[in-house]
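Severity: low
Component: inverse-folding endpoint
Summary: output formatting inconsistent between runs
Steps to reproduce: submit the following structure tokens with default settings.
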């Protein structure tokens, strides 16, 4: 099966949109991906034909909704190659998953003086929860630095890792630079030092296959909306023995076995971590996104995205004064750049007037921007439905930016 981008584009209704009288060129996929019609249909079908609360009712609608909800859990288990559905916890997204681990595993098992290792590439959501934990518990946050290309300096990681390190929490793929981190190496070394590892997979899952058992990740988090699914739902994968040892995060309905005024006993996995009515419709529609992804030719997709990355890099480099920021040895299809003497935000505004959507600013990675010595970047991030012609439009748009602002 060859990779047919034009056919794929037809599956995403929003791509037909016009912006400022021009065809939309959507290059902000690292912020969120567009949704295929199958996902929109799944949302619609739930609300139109079997809207009900789950796990509680015994009537037809409740059973149908519960079954569909649990089908997504199985689909995620298969997608991540997890050992069991007990290890798949529904969250509100990556941020929520990291906060869950910090507030449960972190609060229970980390002590004053213990060290948590993150990297310079982290999104704020993989920094701030650990800072909050460090403030509360007296732990110490240490940071693996990057080199000029945007690759982690692994010798520094080796040096920072010690018997004091209790947790390593690193991003699989950088949202700002596209760097693919060598997480197998990091996990192996961290485990040898006795530390647990959380991998932030928000950007990785839509670009590279993930097998949590092969990786031997202790925790792996992701957001459905970066994977062609709806907003407001995501996944925490955790190894069963760790999830069993962790206290619940939120208390309420659904996560209990028995409640008395004196004492509550908690539900079995995975429900112990799923208090309250979850985001039922979006979880159900997430399966439609995973099913959709499953229909795409994986090798063709990887080749297509790699070609987009190479083409965009080469074309952007022809623009005088443009500097690509982040040239890691292994990258997904994300290109960050700056243009001499022009603020990233101004570039974004003028591109928007041409129907081109990119992300500008710090990309929720302010400490990374400080390391790179830039206020922010312009980021073009590609998905399976993007084309070379859209990259040409971006390059033409940037020439206009220069003409207006230089
Ligand atoms: N981690 C990375 C690498 C991200 O790119 C993002 C979102 O951009 C997040 C975490 C946070 O994801 P969410 O806002 O869906 O919780």
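Observed output (run 2 of 3):
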């Amino acid at each position: 099966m060859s990779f047919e981008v034009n056919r794929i584009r037809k599956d995403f209704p929003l791509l037909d949109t016009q912006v400022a009288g021009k065809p939309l060129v959507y290059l902000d996929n690292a912020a969120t991906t567009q949704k295929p019609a199958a996902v929109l249909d799944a949302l619609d079908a739930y609300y139109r034909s079997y809207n009900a609360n789950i796990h509680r009712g015994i009537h037809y609608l409740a059973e149908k909704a519960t079954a569909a909800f649990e089908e997504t859990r199985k689909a995620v288990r298969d997608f991540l190659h997890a050992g069991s559905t007990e290890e798949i916890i529904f969250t509100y997204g990556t941020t929520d998953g990291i906060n869950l681990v910090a507030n449960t595993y972190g609060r229970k098992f980390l002590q004053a003086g213990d060290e948590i290792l993150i990297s310079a590439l982290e999104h704020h959501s993989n920094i701030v929860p650990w800072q909050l934990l460090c403030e509360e518990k007296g732990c110490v946050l240490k940071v693996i630095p990057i080199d000029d290309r945007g690759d982690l300096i692994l010798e520094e990681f080796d040096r920072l890792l010690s018997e004091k390190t209790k947790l390593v929490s690193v991003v699989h793929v950088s949202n700002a630079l596209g760097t693919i981190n060598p997480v197998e190496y990091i996990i192996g070394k961290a485990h040898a030092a006795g530390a647990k590892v959380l991998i932030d997979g928000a950007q990785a899952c839509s670009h590279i296959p993930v097998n949590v058992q092969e990786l031997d990740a202790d925790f792996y988090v992701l957001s459905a909306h970066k994977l062609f699914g709806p907003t407001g739902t995501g996944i925490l994968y955790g190894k069963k023995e760790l999830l069993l040892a962790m206290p619940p995060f939120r208390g309420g309905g659904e996560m209990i076995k028995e409640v008395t005024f004196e004492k509550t006993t908690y539900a079995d996995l995975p429900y112990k971590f799923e208090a309250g009515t979850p985001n039922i419709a979006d979880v159900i529609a997430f399966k439609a996104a995973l099913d959709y992804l499953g229909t795409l030719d994986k090798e063709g997709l990887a080749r297509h995205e790699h070609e987009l990355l190479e083409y965009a890099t080469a074309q952007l480099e022809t623009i005088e004064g443009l500097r690509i920021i982040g040239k890691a040895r292994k990258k997904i299809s994300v290109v960050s750049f700056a243009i001499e003497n022009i603020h990233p935000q101004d570039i974004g505004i003028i591109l928007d007037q041409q129907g081109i959507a990119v992300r500008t600013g710090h990309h929720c990675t302010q400490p990374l921007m400080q390391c790179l010595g830039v206020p922010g970047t312009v980021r073009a991030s590609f998905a399976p439905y993007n084309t070379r012609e859209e990259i040409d439009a971006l390059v033409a748009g940037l020439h206009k930016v220069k003409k207006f602002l230089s």
